[in-house]
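Action item from last week, closing it out:
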Amino acid sequence: MGSYVTCYVRRSIRFPCSYTNADNPFGDGKLLETFVWNKKLEKEGLHDLDMHEKKKLIFQKQEKNKIELAKVISGGAMFGELKLVKSG
């Protein structure tokens, strides 16, 4: 069998789903690949990066977002609620 997608339920509870690239309800043949928003990278002038650098950039952005989310949650937001934070 191939790789499986990791599903998230609530916070950090993880379990393997039985979705594969060939068999998933989304009809997505690239489900297990890292999503790269090429149009956005092109707009930011970063489209010439190799795939390794793109994945590294995506990982860094995800980590930054996790930190920001943790700040919002620890700032008093209840589970299931979102707090809008205006930047700048």
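Closing note: The chain is about 35% helix and 10% strand.
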